[in-house]
Amino acid sequence: MGDTPGPMASVERGPGFDFGGAVFDLHDPRDRRIVQFVLSQALFGEATGVYCGRSLYAARSLEAAEFYVRQARQELAHLRLFADIFRALDLSPLPAHWVIRLLSSHNDYYPLKVFLEHAVGEGMVLDVFKDLLLATLPDSDPRVPPIKKKLRVVVNDEAEHVAWGEKETAAALREQPWLRTPFYGMFELQMATLPLLVRALRSQAEGHPVLQHLDAFVAHVQANATAQGVRLGFVPAERPGPAARALAIGAGLALYARSQVSRSRSRLDRTYLHELGFE
Ligand SMILES: [Fe+2]
Ligand SMILES: [Fe+2]
Fold first, then answer.
1. Which of 49, 197, 217, 257 is the most exposed place for a label (fewest CB within 10 A)?
2. In sequence order, what DSSP letters do the residues of 150-217 get, joined into one string?
3. What is the pLDDT of residue 1?
4. pLDDT tens across 155-210, in order?
């Protein structure tokens, strides 16, 4: 879906999740409401993904500028693609859940942005698209194979965005190692919001072939995100006690509060000669 085929990004997300072959029934009104809920969060996330165009102004290198141009085109394409999926299934979008609104708000502070949005945020999006939607939409429904074809394109693009987030997060932590603690605090908060998001589905989970795996699936997403955090160095290998976690969360919230008033600064006007190899 992207303009130029980006490098096939490889991100470590561990093995997929096993739903034991359970799929949704797209003719059952209850299942349709569940799929509608999930797709509505995806649609909103893709709409806000287009905000990445704003990151072009603060791009720290030509490579970053090129990435954000490509990402903006991809997210715009994803937005239309999810709209096509709604139409194909004859569903209409619902307003987004408040957790999704919170998690997808734009952040102008670059280290926090690449960490929160790309590495952790899009990492979880990747899990939901790849391990949930691709696994639980029924291939027996003639509308589904073309939908999955589109979803696979999205999954490839999202993997690229996650890889970018990991690379930039690692660079930010190398340059400013003190960010580890506030990043860890923000990560703990992000993980704590996930159960709130799926609470909306809980009442329908009992006895449902797919949703009975809901808690295990959330744990799967959290485990993937935690492994990523350990790999990148902002999650301690062993989970700290409640007091240390509370301190980290305080540091994370302070950093987040500061990021809300930080103005993004342009860089390329100062670095373009160096970036182009003239210096
Ligand atoms: Fe996307
Ligand atoms: Fe994305």
1. 257
2. HHHHHHHHHHHHHHHHHHHHHHHHHH-GGGHHHHHHHHHHHHHHHHHHHHHHHTTTTT-TTGGGHHHH
3. 42
4. 999 999 999 999 999 999 999 999 999 999 999 999 999 999 888 888 888 889 99
Considering every ligand atom, which ligand is closest to the CA of 124? 2
Q: Cβ atoms within 10 A of the Cβ of 77, count?
A: 18
Sign of CA dihedral 205, 34, 152, 10: negative
Separation of 86 CA from ligand 1 center, angstroms? 16
Q: What is the distance in A from the centroid of ligand 2 to the CA of 84?
A: 18
Q: ∠ CA 177-236-230 to the nearest 5 degrees?
A: 85
> What's the CA gap between 124 and 273, in Å, rounded?
37
The residue type of 256 is Y
Predicted local confidence at residue 279, as pLDDT: 84
CA–centroid distance, residue 125 to ligand 1 (Å): 8
Report the distance separating Cα 141 and Cα 101, nearest Å. Answer: 31
Q: What pTM was estimated for this model as a whole?
A: 0.91
User: 225 and 115 in contact (C-beta within 8 Å)?
Assistant: no
Q: Say whether pLDDT at 82 is over 50.
A: yes
Find the ligand nearest to 79 CA.
1
